[in-house]
Amino acid sequence: MRPRGAAFAAGPPGDLHLGTAIGFAGAIWRSRSPAMSTLLDIKSSVLRQVQVCPSFRRRTEQDPGSASADPQEPATGAWKPGDGVEFFAHMRLMLKKGEGRQGLPCLEAWGSPCRQSGSPAPPEPVDPSRGLRALAPEEVEMLYEEALYTVLYRAGTMGPDQVDDEEALLSYLQQVFGTSPEEHTEAIERVRKAKAPTYALKVSVMRAKNLLAKDPNGFSDPYCMLGILPASDATREPRAQKEQRFGFRKGSKRGGPLPAKCIQVTEVKSSTLNPVWKEHFLFEIEDVSTDQLHLDIWDHDDDVSLVEACRKLNEVIGLKGMGRYFKQIVKSARANGTAGPTEDHTDDFLGCLNIPVREVPVAGVDRWFKLRSRGHCHLGSSRNMITTQRDTAMSQRGRSGFRLVPLLLLSAICTLRLSTQQRSPSACHGAQSNHDHPCSGQHWQVSSRHHQTCTLDYSYLLGLLEDMQAHWEEAPSLPQEQEESLADSLSAFSEFGLQLLRQLRDYFPATNSTAVYRLELLLKCLGKLQLFQPSFEICPFETELNMDIAAALKRGNREWYDRILNAKSPREQPGPQRLPGLVVLADAVYDDLQFCYSVYAGLFHSILNVDVFTLTFRQLERLVAEEAWVLTEELSPKMTLEVASGLFELYLTLADLQRFWDSIPGRDSRSLALAGIHAPFLPAVKLWFQVLRDQAKWRLQGAVDMDTLEPVDASSRHSSSAATAGLCLSHIQELWVRLAWPDPAQAQGLGTQLGQDMCEATLFYTELLRKKVDTQPGAAGEAVSEALCVVLNNVELVRKAAGQALKGLAWPEGATGPEGVLPRPLLSCTQALDDDLQREAHTVTAHLTSKVGGAWRPRRGGSPWSWPDHPCPQAVAPLMKYLDEKLALLNASLVKGNLSRVLEALWELLLQAILQALGANRDVSADFYSRFHFTLEALVSFFHAEGQGLPLESLRDGSYKRLKEELRLHKCSTRECIEQFYLDKLKQRTLEQNRFGRLSVRCHYEAAEQRLAVEVLHAADLLPLDANGLSDPFVIVELGPPHLFPLVRSQRTQVKTRTLHPVYDELFYFSVPAEACRRRAACVLFTVMDHDWLSTNDFAGEAALGLGGVSGVARPQVGGGARAGQPVTLHLCRPRAQVRSALRRLEGRTSKEAQEFVKKLKELEKCMEADP
Questions:
Q1: Are 409 and 355 members of one domain?
Q2: Shared domain check, 513 and 408
Q3: Which ranges of 1093-1151 does DSSP label H, i.e. alpha helix?
Q4: What's this model's pTM, rounded to 2 decimal places?
C-alpha cells in the first residue's frame, strides 16, 4: 500500500491543520525522536489558528465614501505674464504645499487617518524556487508509516490543550495523506504488528529549596541520586501503585532487594539548603506503563570522592549487583538518616520522590515537586519522552540521503493548507505552540522557507523565533548538520528581509497601517536573528546584520531616487525642461523624509537601533543638492520668467529641507550639502518679486473692474475687490515667511523692496476704487451713497490687511535689530502707507459727509436759529430728524471704525457751520446766541447717543471748545471781551520759547506812593530785523486792559542801536491803585519794536506779565518804597489767533470803546505784516 501523492494537491479537510504535520516531521527529524510528537496540540493549534486576532494597532479602515476629502485645486500650467489670476492661483498652490511643512511632523498614532488606507498592504514578492523540493512517492509512504507509528505507540500524558483521541489523530492522518479507508486500515494493521519502540526518559535536575540542615554549621552538602525502578507487581491496582509511589521510604512493605535499571548522581553542592544543579540525564525505559523515576537527595559527609563512588557504581555488573547497591540505599532510607558509626555509609538522607513514567507529560515537565521529608525539588525538561529504536522503514533505512525529507513534508503541508483556504497571503497564520529547541528550529526552517514562496503572517514567524530563543541557552547544542541547516534558513530569511527593506516604500508604504504593522513584525524577526548570531559555530551572517540593513536601505534610497529622477527630470533634457521635474523630485524627497521621520524612524530605532532617518536624510539631501547646484549653474545665464518661477519654487522646497533638519534637536544645517544653496537662487528670487509686483497690480485691476461696489453678502460691508486685495497681501506675506531668506543683509534688501511693492499696490488699489466710484451714477438727491460707504469700508479693510502683511515682513535677527521687530526702512514704509490710506479714507469721508451736509444746507428754514419765533426744541427738531435718518443709513452701511470716522467728520462739519453762522450774525440779541447754545448741546447728546456714539471727550474738544468760547464771548460785554484778550496774552507767553528772544524785567508795587514800578533790565537773542543782521530795539511798556487804567499812558525805553542783546536798566512808574492791579486781567504788556528812521517801526515781539503776582500788589510791602522782587525773564512771542479772534468779536460792535480797541489792534497787525 502506498498513499496517493495527489493528496498534497487536494488538502486535508476538517479542523486538523498544519501543526499536526509539523509535529510528525519534527518527530522524524531527530535521531532520538520524541515518543509523542506535536500531535498533542492539534485541537488547540486549530483553535488558535481560527481565532487568531489582529494586533491592537490595526484599526478598521474607513469606508471609501465616509471620509470627506478636501477638494483638490485644479493644476495650473506655466502662468502667463499679465495674468494675475493664474499667477496667484499658482502661488496659492505653493503656499498650500508649505502648510504641512511647519516644524517637525507629529508622531501620529497607529490608528490616525493618515495611516489608514482603503486597500490591503502591497503583496510581497514570492519565489517558488526558494522552497524545498517535492517528496517522492516512496518518501511519502515512509513518512505516512512513521506518522501512524508515532500515534499508535505514543507515551506520556497529554496537556489540557492537546488531543488524546487516537481515532481523531488517525483520521487526520488519513485526510492529510489522502488515503482510502481500505488503505488506511491496512496501514494501521501493519503498523500494529510492528515491534514497539524503545523509549528513553530525559530528566533535568534544576534545583532544590528548603532542605534539611544536617551539618553543624546549619547547612548541608546535598547531591541527588536518581534512577529508574521497575514495578515489583505488574498486576497491582492503580490505587495501590499510587500508595507505593515512594517505595524507598521507611515502612515499605516490599520484600527483598529492589532492582534498578540505572543509577546516576549529581554534583555535591557544599554548604547550602537551596542547591542549584542544572544537570541533565537520560534513562532507558523498558515498560512505560509500570516503570518509575526515583530520586533521593543526600547530605554528603564522608571523604570518599563522589566521582570515585560513581565510578564504582558503574562497575556493578548485572541486576544482582545493582540490587545489592540499592539494598544499602534502602537501609539508609529506612534509618531516615540516623545510622550509627557501625553503618556502611556516613551520608544523611534529606528526601526523595517517585514519579511514574506514564505520568510524565509528553510536552515536558517544568515544575517543583514536594519531597517526602522536607523541601522541594525542581525538575525540568522541554521534551521528556523520546524513542531510541523504532520498527519503521525510515528508521531501518537510516539518515543517509534523507535529512531534508521531514522539512519537505512540512513545506508540502503548508502548501496544502494554503490551497484549501481562499484568503489573502498575509492571512496565513501558523500554530504558535511551545516547542523545544530542535522542534522550533524545524518549524522555523520550514515556515521561513515557505514564507518566501507564499507569504505567511510575520507574527507566526516571530513566535517561532521567540520559542527558539526561549529554549536556546538551556538546550544542548545541535549536531553540526542541523546547525548548518538552521544557519542556512536564518541567512536565507535575512537576505529575503533585506530585499524587502531595499524596496521599503513599495512593500511597506507609510500611509498603509497594515503594511506598517507588517514592517514592524519583519523588523522584530530580523532583531531576533541578531540574537542567534553569536550562538552558531558556523555563523550564518558574514557581517553585522545592522550593517547589512543600513546598506540595503542606502541602496534602496538610491534606486528610489534614480527612478523618480529618470521619470521626471532625465539628465538628457535641457535645463529649462528638467526644472519642473526637479521640483517634483524635491517635493517627493521632502514628503518621503516626513514619512521616514514620523513612521519608519521610530520602528527601526526601537527594534534594530538603526537611525534610518539620519541615514536617509543625509543621502537624499546630498543627491538633491548635487542636482540643484548643477542645474542653477546651467540656468543662470538663461534666466527667463518661467525659469525664475521654477527656480523660486525649487528653492522653497530646498529651504524647507534645511529647516526640517534644523528643527530636530541637536542638528545643524550648516553641515548639509544644501548649506549656502540660496546664493545661486538670488537672481531668480529678485526677478520673481518684480513679476509679483506687476501681477499684483494686474490682479487688483481685474478685481476692481469686476467689482460692483456692493457688499459681498449680508454679513459683509465690503465688496469683492477688497477681499481679493486682502487675500493677495496675505499670500505675499505668507510667501515671505516661507521664503525665510537666510542672509540677513540680502533679506533686508528683499524685504524692503517687497514692502515698497506692497505699499505701491495698495495705493494703486485705492486710486482705482476712487476712480470707479467717481464714475458711478448716483440717485438724484441721494445724500448717503452706498458705493461711497463700500469704498470707505474697502479702504479700511485693505489698510488693516496691508499693515498686518507689512508687519509680517520683519526679516530674521542679524540685519538691523532683534527678530520680529520692524526694521527702520520697513517701519517708515508702513507709516507712510498708513498715512496715505488715512488721507484717502478722510478724502472719501469728507466727500460722504459733504453730501450729507450739502443735502441739509439748501433747505429753507432748516437752521434752528432761522426760526426766532419757535421754541428751541421745535426749532432744532428738523435738523435732528434729518441727521437721524442719514446716520441710520450710515450705521447700516459702514463698519464701526468708518462709522466713527464719518461721525467725527460730520460733527466737525456741523461745528464749522455753526461757527460760520456766528460770524455771519453780529451784534444780535442774547436770545439768538442762546439758540446756538441749545443747538450745540442737543447735537452733543445726539452724537453721544448715550455712550453708543462718539465719546464725550472727543465731542467736547477742538472746535467745540472754540465754539463754546465764541458763544460765551458773544454774550459778554465789550470790556469783558477786552479782558479776555489780555487773558489770552497771558496764556500764550510760553508757547514759543527762544524764537523771538527774551526780555528780563523786575516789577513791584509801592503802596505808600500808590504806584507800580516797572524796571526794564535787558533783552537777548532778538530777531535781526535790519539789513545788517542786527536791530535797533526799544521797549514799549503799557498797562492793560485800558478801562482798568484809563489815566495811564504807555512809556518807552531808549533805542539801542545795532544790537540783538540790548541792555536798558530803565525804571518806569505808573500811578495806579492796588485794587486795579488785583483784577484778573490786569497786566503789564511789553512790546519790543525795531526803530526805523525812514519807515514805520517793525514789530519784534511782545510779552505780558500779570500784575496779580507782582510783589506788593497782593500783600503790601513793609518799609515803604524799598525795591523788592526778583528779575523775571519773559519769552517774547507774536500775537496768534487770539488777536484776530478778538478783532472779529469786537469789530462788529458799534460802541466807541470797541471801535477804538479794534483800531489799535489793526495798527499792530500792520506792524506785523512785514515780519518774518
A1: no
A2: no
A3: 1137-1147
A4: 0.61
